[in-house]
Write a structure and sequence with these properties.
- The chain is α+β, with helices and mostly antiparallel strands.
- Among the domains are: 65-131, no CATH class; 144-290, SH3 type barrels (Roll), CATH 2.30.30.
- 28% of the residues lie in helices and 26% in strands.
- The chain is built from 14 helices and 18 strands.
- The strands form three sheets. Strands 1, 2, 7, 8, 9, 10, 11, 17 and 18 form a nine-stranded mixed sheet that branches. Strands 15-14-13-12-16 form a five-stranded antiparallel sheet, with no helix packed on it.
- Strand 4 (87-90) and strand 5 form a beta hairpin.
- Helix 8 packs across helix 9 (208-219).
- The chain starts with a helix and ends in a 30-residue tail after the last helix.
Length: 407
Amino acid sequence: MASFTGPEIAALIDVGCIIASHEAFSAELERSLATMPRMMRHSSSYEHWIRGVFLITQVEPDEGKLTIRVDSEGMLSRVRAKMDGLSLTLQGRRWRVAAKEELEGVKEDALGQAFADLNAPCTLVLESDEPENCGNDHVVAVNLTRPLGAPPDRGLVESAIRDVCKKYRKASSVEINHFIGGPCQEEELMCCVVLGGGGCGWTVLKDLRQAIELAFSRAAKRLDAEGEIHGGQTVRLKDLQGAAHLNGEIGLALRFNSESGRWLVRLRNGEGKQLRPANLDGLEGSSGRVFAVWGDARWSRAQLLGEIAKGDWGLCRANIGDLTSGPPERWPATHGRLAFAPITEMTESYMREAQREMNAARQTLQMHAEPREIEDEQLPAREDTSSTAPGTVSDQEMACPLLPNQD
């Protein structure tokens, strides 16, 4: 699969990168949805992919083990019906029932009978017959373009807020934005993204309580010298003399350096600047922000590479602009940044047609361009020396924690 996409694109399947859908892929899914019966639309996963922007949060090696929780006798019967003896084929891989969990200690020659006698509820462990390889790595990503008006589990959210408020009374001011992250386990909170800190400008956590506490800690004011800016807040640069071209640029306030009296700000191009509070206008997120993501999207590395090779997805490094912009702006903001696989025999027919239309549009523009514009177009492109590498996360703000019960 990597040979169809090229090694540069394959290398972007990494934590801190963005997977975004191609416009032609999104349009094809919309056409399919329009012809689909209404009842089938709700069971389809198409809406998750249309103009989706997925932040990769995990890439984990495959352990060759699959754990299945069986809650009812009906489910157990369906699993048995799909099996050939003690084996099962899933996504092209062969799996075999292992002597684990309720079958722990059962000898190989008695495993078939023990499995037949098993009652629900129980847990099945399947082990793969294949040797380990990186193509089976688990890739997990969450969509940041589909906000939710209310969390699927309101009780879980309210409980988390109450617990943190016992320690920090004003932690309820932290802004929590909820998203549908993908088709897998939509009712379950899969991860939380907390803005601010160090490194790339955000931290991914599993626990909502930890996320709220971290967001509150980052936003809390510790020194008067910080001005009216808070950690994790979106800021606009202003009144810069030596770098006037940056005035009006949007960034994210990461943390305050008490020695220099300046804020470390990450810009949308990935560049970091140390700026005085007087050169910053505070925008959204002054009380701390958490993106609570319910559900996610999952691929094996080889599966995702196959979809990229078809032309469905492009990849790029994530930057703080992908988080500080509003959900409707996130997909358009990836234009010009995404790397797509070249046209090959793997490319879908509608992607080939989209490529032909784009080339025809370019030729039409060139034919009607003024002579000077054509000359300018033939000049070599200026080299882009900006970096959007996200870097690594290092949360040093917790080294100066707030006192318990401090506002």
